[in-house]
Design goal:
Its EC number is 2.2.1.7. 37% of the residues lie in helices and 15% in strands. With 641 residues, the chain is α/β, with parallel strands linked by helices. The strands form 4 sheets. It has a 7-stranded mixed β-sheet with strand order 9-8-10-11-13-12-17, with helices on both faces. Strands 2-3-4-6-5 form a 5-stranded parallel β-sheet, sandwiched between helices. Helix 1 packs across helix 4, helix 5 (125-137) packs parallel to helix 6 and helix 20 (521-533) packs across helix 24 (621-632). Bound molecules: thiamine diphosphate, 1-deoxy-D-xylulose-5-phosphate and magnesium ion.
Length: 641
């Protein structure tokens, strides 16, 4: 008689408390099922795969040992949190991840009590965990009592200054706090930098401390083990590197390295430190990004992010496109320009492929610098390069440049240094949602004296703007462009150097002028087609520059039309605000011009397709048409007889 198939353990987990009832061998089986479920779910949705697969055992062990949500488990970046979401009551919605109205691809406080701190930008976890630890000790959560704070941070995220600022503070405060360093020797691309080499030395030489050393440092916080598996822990800890590490110098007890895929190592170590730690402890865990799924393990990015895929073959299902991506146009144009100009160099903060600088690095490795996840340093390093006579292009996503803003102001703008900022992922980016939206750069760059700020309306324009930036030695200059494919326009052989502060006319019309800054121009064109059918023919211009503004163009549009509408893929305070300021200063409003500025609304827009997000934002063709009709006092389509 055939034996009855066992009920999957995962089906018996509705909250992490259920893990407490499992034996260690059942936890190992659960990890196996959790990995399979993660792969199956991401194959249907796409998303971040490799990082989550690398922490499956760690996720199980942490939830088995600690008492979430009372204990605060904080995932750095949190792109690895899919297995955590599955175990914390969100399995039934995991196939909605990164979609409209679905689960976020990152941890999010409003989504679950098991997500005590939201993330998506890296290297914030230790600071946040320390905040929780201090709040606990100050009695900040009297109803839930004194929970632990645990930060799980990757080796890539550990390259950022913020992580060290936090450890410096934690070592000083000496609060009980756990940092799990999840070291998989990968960032999005292979990690760079001396810190990465240091971590590698810690385990390539392990065990480099003798039993005598083990009597000191971290092991001193461990008692004679008396619980399940602790004998093994003691044996293991004898072989670990303790004392003498950088982390110890910062005031942490250091334990490691341990195999992060072996629950027989993870569970006893976590149980022991959970039992006995009194101050900050760093546990160095070695894992493999993409673990347990061959197509991810063997991919160059270790399955960091993927489209939907076939589980059996690993083949990704991507929609074909003829238009080159903006990122590629940037990378190729810069690489071509660099062949004539040995002063052109490039800086990326751990995103060589995402920014297209991988193309540049292949051709000019000595002029391309991956500084790690270190946007602040990257900006000031570029400022130094510029001051030293080079022509640096600092290629950073709009959302990540936020982290280097003081450096943009203090090191670049005030000194009028000609750093060229390639601001990729401008505007709404889609599945990564609000944390990754490039909503603010127009505002935060255009308000800086002496800055030149451009936005490309299409990929040919981007090519011109890269050339313009290369030729621009008179102070800092930025050009922004969105994620994804271009408009499919014909590409010029070479980028042409644009006149600074000059826009271009797209079409001459009557009564209303639309002045577009960036890639909303495509939607403006669509709106015009529908408006033409109603007998309304707007004038359309592409501003190209938010700073300096094309005063002549703007004042002419204002003088020759009843109404002027600006549109941009950015928050209030950007292009439209600068145009309004100019019009006000020139007294144009006094003569009755009707002015409207279409910007992102004052809310954080959740993930969806970029088109859906722009619809929510009210910046699509339909809303442009409605805006034109309303400013002209014409009834909108919905009200047509
Ligand atoms: C401030 C910031 N810069 C860049 C990124 C883009 N980014 C997301 S994950 C990642 C790599 C993280 O590597 P690691 O911490 O080692 O985690 P792993 O993916 O290897 O698990 C990068 C560069 C980011 N999220 N935040
Ligand atoms: C987690 C993270 O910050 C990155 O992986 C990000 O999702 C990359 O975005 P792109 O896909 O736009 O490069
Ligand atoms: Mg890593």
């Amino acid at each position: 008689m055939a034996s009855r198939p066992e009920t999957p353990l995962l089906d018996r987990v509705s909250t992490p408390a259920d893990l407490k009832r499992f034996s260690d061998s059942e936890l190992a089986r659960l990890a196996h099922e959790l990995r399979a479920e993660t792969i199956a779910a991401v194959s249907e949705t796409g998303g971040h795969l490799g990082a989550g697969l690398g922490v499956v055992e760690l996720t199980v062990a942490l939830h088995a040992v600690f008492d979430t949500p009372r204990d605060k488990l904080i995932w750095d970046v949190s792109h690895q949190s899919y297995p955590h979401k599955i175990l914390t009551g969100r399995r039934d919605r995991i196939r909605t991840i990164r979609q409209k109205d679905g689960l976020s691809g990152f941890t999010k406080r409003s989504e679950s009590p098991y997500d005590p701190f939201g993330a998506a930008h890296s290297s914030t976890s230790i600071s946040a965990a320390l905040g929780f630890a201090v709040a606990r000790d100050l009695g900040g959560a009297p109803d839930t009592g004194a929970g632990d704070a645990i930060a799980v941070i990757g080796d890539g995220a550990m390259s950022a200054g913020m992580a060290y600022e936090a450890m410096n503070n934690a070592g000083h405060l000496k609060k009980r706090l756990f940092v799990i360093l999840n070291d998989n020797e990968m960032s999005i691309a292979p990690p760079t930098g001396a810190m990465s080499s240091y971590l590698m030395r810690l385990y390539s030489e392990a065990p480099f401390h003798t039993l005598k050393d083990a009597a000191k440092g971290a092991v001193s916080l461990l008692p004679e083990p008396f619980q399940q598996g602790a004998k093994r822990a003691k044996e293991m800890i004898k072989g670990m590197a303790v004392g003498g590490t950088l982390f110890e110098a910062l005031g942490f007890s250091y334990l490691g390295p341990i195999d992060g895929h072996d629950l027989d190592q993870l569970l006893p170590v976590l149980r022991t430190v959970h039992q006995r730690a009194t101050g900050p402890v760093l546990i160095h865990v070695l894992t493999k990004k993409g673990k347990g799924y061959a197509p991810a393990e063997t991919a160059s990015d270790k399955g960091h992010a993927t489209a939907k895929f076939d589980v059996v073959t690993g083949q990704q299902k991507k929609a074909p496109s003829n238009a080159p991506s903006y990122t590629k146009v940037f990378g190729e144009t810069l690489t071509a320009l660099a062949s004539d100009d040995p002063r052109i160099c490039a800086v990326t903060a751990a995103m060589p492929d995402g920014t297209g600088l991988n193309l540049f690095a292949e051709r000019y490795p000595s002029r391309c610098f991956d500084v790690g996840i270190a946007e602040q340093h990257g900006v000031t390093f570029a400022a130094g390069l510029a001051a030293g006579g080079m022509r640096p292009f600092c290629a950073i996503y709009s959302t990540f440049l936020q982290r280097g803003y003081d450096q943009v102001v203090h090191d670049v703008a005030i000194q009028r240094l000609p750093v060229r900022f390639a601001v990729d992922r401008a505007g709404l980016v889609g599945a990564d949602g609000a944390t990754h939206a490039g909503s603010y750069d127009i505002a935060y760059l255009s308000n800086l004296p002496g800055f030149t700020v451009m936005a490309a309306a299409d990929e040919a324009e981007l090519k011109h703007m890269v050339a313009t930036a290369a030729a621009h030695d008179d102070g800092p200059i930025a050009f922004r462009y969105p994620r994804g494919e271009g408009e499919g326009v014909e590409m010029p052989e070479r980028g042409e150097v644009l006149e600074i502060g000059r826009g271009r006319m797209i079409r001459e019309g009557k009564r209303v002028a639309i002045l577009s800054f960036g890639t909303r121009l495509g939607e403006v064109r669509k709106a015009c087609e529908t408006l033409e059918a109603r007998g309304i023919s707007p004038t359309v211009a592409d501003a190209r520059f938010a700073k300096p503004l094309d005063r002549d163009l703007i004042l002419r549009l204002a003088a020759e039309h009843e109404a002027l509408i600006t549109i941009e893929e950015g928050a209030v305070g950007g292009f439209g605000s600068h145009v309004a300021q100019l019009l006000a200063e020139e007294g144009v409003f006094d003569s009755g011009l009707r002015f409207r500025s279409m910007v992102l609304p004052d809310v954080f827009i959740d993930q969806a397709s970029p088109a859906d997000m722009y619809a929510v934002a009210g910046l699509d063709a339909e809303k442009i048409e409605a805006k034109v009709l309303s400013v002209l006092g014409v009834e909108s389509i919905g009200k047509r007889a």
